[in-house]
Amino acid sequence: xxxxxxxxxxxxxxxxxxRHLSFTRAADELCVTPGAVSxxxxxxxxxxxxxxxxxxxxxxxxxxxxxxxxxAIISAFDIISKATESAAPALQGRTLRxxxxxHIARAAASTVRxxxxxxxxxxxxxxxxxxxxxxxxxxxxxxxxxxxxxxxxGLHIDRLVLAGVGGTETPVxxxxxxxxAGCREHxxxxxxxxxxx
Length: 197
Prior knowledge:
The strands form two sheets. The chain has a five-stranded mixed sheet. A two-stranded antiparallel sheet has the order 1-2. Helices cover 50% and strands 19% of the residues. The model has no long low-confidence stretch (mean pLDDT 82). It has 197 residues and is of the alpha/beta class. The chain contains eight helices and seven strands; from the N terminus they run αααββαβααβαβββα. The protein has helices at 8-20, 23-30, 34-48, 64-87, 102-107, 109-122, 133-137, 184-196, and strands at 53-55, 60-62, 96-100, 125-129, 143-147, 156-163, 169-176. It starts with 7 loop residues before the first helix and ends with a helix. It folds into two domains: 8-89, Arc Repressor Mutant, subunit A (Orthogonal Bundle); 93-196, D-Maltodextrin-Binding Protein, domain 2. Strand 1 (53-55) and strand 2 (60-62) form a beta hairpin. Helix 1 packs across helix 3 (34-48).
């Protein structure tokens, strides 16, 4: 049986843009330009004959058709992901190598301690104290928690606020290689960090 499918790159771009409500952040996750994401979504919209987004001057909003279409696409990607992990066991349980700068380890000690305990139990994250951004850039780390601020072209950036010492808040950035941004392990780490905030 032949399946009638829309452009798959368009589906990936649509799903990422819908999650972020931003072509720029979707492009960062998918390692392409915002223009490429916009073009792929437009191609998908043309193939479907419907508008999926309303493009506002500084944001995106899903149309009713886009909101109705999105859950099925998310579900389909989830099914494909699970089938791929079953077929290729080497992809299961990837350990994310996370560097944490010593400053963050001190400022948000309780969060880092909880993260270390969770990492020990589930082995999903391997932590290393380091302030050397080169370790991330040359692939010895997958992600790095650093103090907020500065420009990091070529890296995916998630901005978070962690619970600091004495009830203070510590703004941080989770820097990730774009190819890993949005993967299951990255999403799990982000969720865990937000829960610990």
